[in-house]
Amino acid sequence: MQRGSFKGMKSLNKSIILTKILNEGPISRAQIAKDTQLTPPTVGSLVKELIDQRIVKESTQGTSKGGRKPTMLVIDQQAYYMIGIDAGPSQIDLILTDLSGKIIANAQHQLLLPITDKQFLTQLIHVTEAMVTDHVKYSDHIIGIGVAMHGVVDANEGESLYAPNLNLRDMPIAEALSNHFSYMVKVENDARALALAETWFGQGKGYDRLVAVNIGTGVGAGVVIEGDLYHGETFIAGEIGHMTIDLNGARCSCGNYGCWQTVISGPSIATRTKQFIKEGMDTSLTDLTDVTAFDVFEAAEAGDTFAQKILTETGYYIGVGLTNLIHTINPSQIILNGGVMKANTYLMPIIKETIAERVLTRAAKDTLVTVSELGDHATALGAVALILVELFAKNGELEL
Amino acid sequence: MQRGSFKGMKSLNKSIILTKILNEGPISRAQIAKDTQLTPPTVGSLVKELIDQRIVKESTQGTSKGGRKPTMLVIDQQAYYMIGIDAGPSQIDLILTDLSGKIIANAQHQLLLPITDKQFLTQLIHVTEAMVTDHVKYSDHIIGIGVAMHGVVDANEGESLYAPNLNLRDMPIAEALSNHFSYMVKVENDARALALAETWFGQGKGYDRLVAVNIGTGVGAGVVIEGDLYHGETFIAGEIGHMTIDLNGARCSCGNYGCWQTVISGPSIATRTKQFIKEGMDTSLTDLTDVTAFDVFEAAEAGDTFAQKILTETGYYIGVGLTNLIHTINPSQIILNGGVMKANTYLMPIIKETIAERVLTRAAKDTLVTVSELGDHATALGAVALILVELFAKNGELEL
DNA sequence: GTAGGTTCTTTAATTAAGTTAACTTACATG
DNA sequence: CATGTAAGTTAACTTAATTAAAGAACCTAC
């Protein structure tokens, strides 16, 4: 437990004010004081510091309510910039954004596999360096680099503990980047970064307890509890792709049987489809060897009722798993993402129906289930949000 | 977010000191200062207040390490007393304890069913009143009443939202007791209270992330995250008895199929046993109609290999479900409780084996899985712990 | 047995930062 | 233009932590 101190008290109040301006700006000092229980002088002096730090700026005058017009405060979106890196299994996606998350520039780089840990870190530094030098006019105003890394990540130490697709272990990513750049560096698991992206830029804004589930080649989730990312004891909280949902189910890549992944992931949809084709189902899908989940989606779009049935079935399985999540973590919101969710028009009705049918209490039926609207650079935006957490929520007391 | 203030800073520091003394006492002021980063004068003055409040007292002198002997501080266990109430589906268990959780007195009362909400509240007040008057010499020193209520509970409002076995809804328990007694009143769901009991008095001491799973007639869990009880959005976090684990499994009381409960609860063990007996298994168990999980346990103890096999199978199912928990919540510790765990000698080896085999990462294999050692009044102790949370962790700034 | 060093605890002065109360600025209205 | 009201600032005050120093109690060594 962190002890109470003057410094801590001040930075807490600064964070509160900053977060208020971010979420509800333009807002006046007086309004902040009313909402936060802080006194006007306290708000005034802390706002002054924030303006000196250039995170906050005064904007227009508000309308008078019978007296002096309030001076509205807003975040100075263009005062600082951040780099977000989505380090996936086969490529690296980089973005440069302002404090509002507006993407100024982006770049993609392929990884040449196989790769050693040294090569990986060198390439990471290299592509980041390129992003900085390509946009020199921002470089003095960059405050941090966020990295969303696939696999198991120790976010405290900024280390990649295990990246299965690269087959690399124990890479000190934060250390490597910190040695090369003067910016703050934060590293997080990609699924968790995605969840953070939703809370900062997506539909998760203002929700304290949410789960962002990614359904693609694999299935993973980021869990936000009481406003903070939740890691668990050994950084595997949210590895729900490997939640057993069918005791007698198909074998999973992890070696177990009946993992959730084995019924809802992209590859599993393809596998199930092939199985049915073999059994002689009536369908327009004929290519037994190369059929993918996307093919199934396209066939469904073209009116193939068999393909539609496959997707409906998948939606049911997703719904069952999400109900398990609701009965365990009981979030206020679940946001779905990933390739499989491209078929959301087929999936969502049955997902919602399944949850409504299976959930235990009436109140839990109201759990919001939506599809992410963040788009292409969602994970990289989550990486950027890692920096925003430090800037806004953590303490507001950074040297800038 | 709560604003920073002098009061808040002080009470936070007081809590830190108090918790330190609780967990590591007898301990000296100097040692507290070293461990907590607080300065000696701060520790000194706050300890003085705690001594004035009679929560803390000076005990023996410690041994000198080359200088003045330290004065050791301990919690004054007998300064205050608490009442813990376990309000189960058919009976009420009350205990009176000191601050260490030592049980001074206990009483059990049957509920006469069916019962109305008014009758229930009246009986609750009545039995509590009896406990107080039967032990008058403690009554002036009682600081609070904790209630562990089965069913869905709104812990913030102190309301029982739904008690399925009594078929009662929306009972204002805290309000009713507060109107009758001058003590602080806290209400919580029973499974969560049990988890709290483990963190305060059981094997969960010092663990920040733990799940206490109760396997009996039903299956439920209390989740502790970052040291706090976790409720979820609508107070159903931890309702893992209804986690679907077998897509094509047996029908559950909740209406779904293949809930975890349907393979590990006491009744499910009996049902499965009957099924096998029908199929002509070789066993000493013959009474097809009335066989219970306890009979299976006894048969196993007597050497019946069929009964042992049933239990082993049950252990496997428990292990699978716990692995799901690890992949979702990733706690440092799981503590098992409830009637079924009486067969722990048969269950535990296979539970641990199953988890070790199925869990994704090496680090997660170290998740501690143990059987509760709290004994009979475990849930009532959890109710008592609700009061301790207020006293120790919440703010240390109560009027005493 | 006493001097010097060490550790524990308390006292006194200082400082950080929030709070209170009063004041200034700026605007609206009659 | 006088009055009232809201926004923001200034100055005095208060709280509670921190710093510095003193005092208390003990140990070891000469």
From TrEMBL, chains A, B:
**Organism source for this protein?**
Amphibacillus marinus
Q: Which GO terms describe its molecular function?
A: DNA binding; kinase activity
The family database entries (PANTHER family) matched by this protein are listed as: BIFUNCTIONAL UDP-N-ACETYLGLUCOSAMINE 2-EPIMERASE_N-ACETYLMANNOSAMINE KINASE (PTHR18964:SF149), ROK (REPRESSOR, ORF, KINASE) FAMILY (PTHR18964)
Q: Please name the InterPro entries in this protein's record.
A: ArsR-like_HTH (IPR011991), ATPase_NBD (IPR043129), ROK (IPR000600), ROK_cs (IPR049874), WH-like_DNA-bd_sf (IPR036388), WH_DNA-bd_sf (IPR036390)
Q: Recite the UniProt keywords alphabetically.
A: Carbohydrate metabolism, DNA-binding, Kinase, Transferase, Xylose metabolism
**Protein name listed in UniProt:** ROK family protein (Putative glucokinase)
What biological processes does GO assign it? Answer: D-xylose metabolic process
What family does this chain come from, according to its entry?
Answer: Belongs to the ROK (NagC/XylR) family.
- Role noted for this protein: Transcriptional repressor of xylose-utilizing enzymes.
Q: Name one Pfam family in it.
A: ROK
